[in-house]
Amino acid sequence: MDFTSFDSRSVADEGRPLHLRHPSTGELLWDDQGPHLDDDGAEVPREKPCLVYVLGTEGRVAQEAFREAAKLPKLPDDATMQDYHDRLCVTARKLVVGFENVDRNTRAATMADVDWFLALNVSNPVARGKGRSFAEQVLAFSNDRSAFLGKPEASSSAPRSRSAGRTPALKAGRKRAGKT
């Protein structure tokens, strides 16, 4: 048996695509008008998932981010939701390595937009519902070993997309290809 399929450490440093969910409803987010019906009445599936590429918590980069967060002073007893959210973002911002089909106004989001993206909504540990803030989604996905287990072609992690398991190298500020 090839035990490289259990390697969650090296893959964690490559990053994997997280299909983002609506922060209130929990519904998957898409950057196209599907599914809809074509001229023959057949359903045309959606093809452009809104993805953020995330490093896994077992990788070297994430471990360093957690080390930095652990050195921060304890939050005061009167800390606000914003204080807790800011604390989550200390780690989350270092785990995001790219975007696909995520726009900021009229342009594609880039690595320069990570703080903007994470600040779009605030984590709320008291709220009950189906949704999570984007920072919470990033951290939960990063911590999901199944999303980073083994060789990319051996991964059975959700969410699946045509780009799952493949993260082409990017230079800062460049958008990932829409279809890989």
TrEMBL record:
Highest taxon of source: Bacteria
Comp. bias regions, Low complexity: 152-169
Compositionally skewed regions (Basic and acidic residues) per UniProt: 33-43
Sequence segments annotated as region (Disordered): 16-43, 149-180
Name of protein: Uncharacterized protein
Organism from which the protein derives: Paracoccus fontiphilus
